[in-house]
């Protein structure tokens, strides 16, 4: 599984990364988590509002408010 967290480095972006890591650990799944901070790359992925979460190439979340840990787990499981 490939998970990308997109954001320039704001506190919400760091929080999204931590949520993704925690969700993967709690779900007990293997996943590569990549953090993308370059604005050009973020835009190329189709994210217009950060933080963004992409699971296996599909945009699963973009912008605020941040999802809960349980919601992030649902977003990841639905693409597992």
Describe the fold and architecture.
With 80 residues, the chain is of the alpha+beta class. The protein has a single domain (2-77), classed as Glutaredoxin (3-Layer(aba) Sandwich). Helix content is 40%, strand content 24%. It has helices at 11-27, 39-44, 69-77, and strands at 2-6, 32-36, 52-55, 58-62. A 4-stranded mixed sheet has the order 2-1-3-4. A hairpin with a 2-residue loop joins strand 3 and strand 4. Helix 1 (11-27) packs across helix 3. The longest helix has 17 residues, at 11-27. 30% of the residues are buried.
| Number of beta-strand segments | 4
How do the strands line up in the largest sheet? 2-1-3-4
- CATH level-3 fold name: Glutaredoxin
Number of H/I helices = 3
Distance between the termini: 7 Å
CATH homologous superfamily name?
Glutaredoxin
The number of domains? 1
Mean pLDDT, rounded to whole units?
Answer: 94
Which shape, going by the Cα principal axes? Answer: globular
User: What CATH first level would be assigned?
Assistant: Alpha Beta
Taking Cα atoms only, what radius of gyration do you get, to the nearest Å?
A: 11 Å
Strand share of the residues?
15-25%
Largest sheet: 4 strands, mixed
**Order of SSEs:** EHEHEEH
Structural class designation: alpha+beta
Q: List low-pLDDT spans.
A: none
CATH structural architecture: 3-Layer(aba) Sandwich
Task: Note the topology.
Layout: E1 2-6, H1 11-27, E2 32-36, H2 39-44, E3 52-55, E4 58-62, H3 69-77
Parallel strand pairs: 1-2
Antiparallel strand pairs: 1-3, 3-4
Helix pairs in contact: 1-3
